[in-house]
Amino acid sequence: MTLFDRATVADELQFSEFYRENLRPMIGQRIKASELRNAYLDWAAKKGRGSLSAVAIAHLMEKRGHTRRRSNGVRFLDIELNSGGGGDGNPLMAEAASMVLNAMGRQSDRERLLRMRLQDMAAQIDSLVDQLQRLQRVVASELDA
């Protein structure tokens, strides 16, 4: 694994943590790219983490199935901040839209949300494996001492 690959994996894990803690997939909602990046930068500063570029964040959002749209600025679709106050639109309308889409059997939306959830679960597992490997190294170094 190259240094670039390791950095990419680290960025993915870091963004996955931010995504789990701060965002919620919600069909019909959208969030400005600038609001998303500001929320990410605030989170990274509080956690003492490095920051990702706007391009990297956009790539990681698209990787999770959130389409970018230009409409009075760039926005990501089908996502909102957990607080409910960061995205555009009414959260109740977004929830209703989600229920209608499910009732209509829009398989592609359900599959996309399921894929995003599975990707986040995989990232969580990768993070746990990384933590276990670090713990294993610590225990091994203590045993050697």
| Overall radius of gyration | 18 Å
Number of helices: 5
The CATH class of the largest domain turns out to be: Mainly Alpha
How many strand elements?
Answer: 3
CATH architecture of the largest domain: Orthogonal Bundle
Main beta-sheet strand count, sense and barrel state: 3 strands, antiparallel
Please give the share of residues in helix: 55-70%
Query: How many distinct folded domains?
Result: 2
What is the H/E string? Answer: HEHHEEHH
Structural class: alpha+beta
Distance between the termini: 29 Å
Q: Looking at CATH, which topology of the largest domain would you report?
A: Arc Repressor Mutant, subunit A
In one word, what is the shape? elongated
Written overview of the protein:
This protein has 145 residues and is of the alpha+beta class. It has 2 domains: 1-80, Arc Repressor Mutant, subunit A (Orthogonal Bundle); 84-144. It has 5 helices and 3 strands. It has helices at residues 3-22, 33-47, 54-63, 91-104, 107-144, and strands spanning 23-32, 68-70, 74-81. It has a 3-stranded antiparallel sheet with strand order 1-3-2. A hairpin with a 3-residue loop joins strand 2 (68-70) and strand 3. Residues 84-89 have low confidence and may be disordered.
